[in-house]
Amino acid sequence: MMRALWTAASGMRAQQTNVDTISNNLANVNTVGYKTERTEFKSLLYQTLQTKTTTANGEAKPISAQVGLGTRVASITSSFTNGELLASESDSAFAIEGDGFFAVRGDDGNTYYTRNGDFNWSIGVNGVTLCNNSGYPVLDTNGNEIVIPNDVSVNTVMVTNDGQFSYLDDNGNSVDMQSQMAIYQFDNPEGLEKMSGSLYGVTDASGQPMSEVTTAGLRKSRICQNYLESSNVQVADEMVNLIIAQRAYELNSKAIQAADDMLSQANQLRR
């Protein structure tokens, strides 16, 4: 019965983490580029209650007698399916159709990756620079900041579906800026480290970033200007998952109560 107490407690802890994950999904239902997460579980060690044989001549039992010792969280996995594209009035809003990620440079000088294309033009040291909402500059295929000339209005900047930047001069002619927005892919995007601000960091599990421009064999992503990618959270699914997690938590709590009642009855036995 003590085994039942610890086993049910492990289930309650695991379901609490599951509820935490579902709550985070619901909290980010309107976060641009957010990817829904799901909690995955694995069983703990099994305890053998009987030996492999119960006969004097040592014949093996056809079925073993083992009891599980509970569960634990194995991983919290992100689903990188594409979210719905929503029209935006901002000319610096971008969405990706495909498996790619935007690249930004953080304050620490490292490169981070994101699906959140809600960018803005900001006056920086080198000029008017394309940045995310945290002020991190967006990078081009050469790893440089995307900067427009000082005499060019941000309202005249255009971006093609492959990320090429251009602007209209005073005569209405298109002028190539010789800059292309960098888009990267990963062998295992689920292995990326989740950071704040909808950013992801590279890990050994994710593999190194692969530029869609220089890496052969990649299916190219499509950049959509004046669009933003909504989160791929399905509220109805999350509510169903929340109910299931709540019921599992209640069942584990009832198992603890049942084990406690059995221990209480055993303590009250009289000779």
Topology of this protein?
Layout: H1 2-27, E1 37-43, E2 46-48, E3 66-68, E4 71-78, E5 85-87, E6 94-97, E7 101-105, E8 111-114, E9 120-123, E10 128-131, E11 147-148, E12 157-159, E13 164-168, E14 174-180, E15 183-185, E16 193-194, E17 199-201, E18 210-211, E19 222-225, E20 227-229, H2 235-267
Antiparallel strand pairs: 1-4, 2-3, 5-20, 6-19, 7-8, 7-15, 8-17, 9-10, 10-11, 12-13, 13-14, 15-18, 16-17
Helix pairs in contact: 1-2
Strand order of the largest sheet: 16-17-8-7-15-18
Total strand segments? 20
Q: State the end-to-end distance.
A: 21 Å
Helix residue percentage: 10-25%
Structural class: alpha+beta
How would you sum up the major sheet?
Answer: 6 strands, antiparallel
Q: H/E series, N to C? A: HEEEEEEEEEEEEEEEEEEEEH
Report the principal-axis shape. elongated
Low-confidence stretches: none
Taking all residues together, what is the mean pLDDT?
90
Question: How many discrete structural domains?
Answer: 2
DSSP strand content = 25-35%
Using the CA coordinates, give the radius of gyration.
27 Å
Task: Tell me what you see in this structure.
By secondary structure, the protein is an alpha+beta fold. The chain has 2 domains: 2-79 and 233-267, no CATH class; 85-229, no CATH class. It contains 2 helices and 20 strands. The strands form 7 sheets. Strands 16-17-8-7-15-18 form a 6-stranded antiparallel sheet, with no helix packed on it. It has a 3-stranded antiparallel sheet with strand order 9-10-11, with no helix packed on it. Helix 1 packs antiparallel against helix 2.
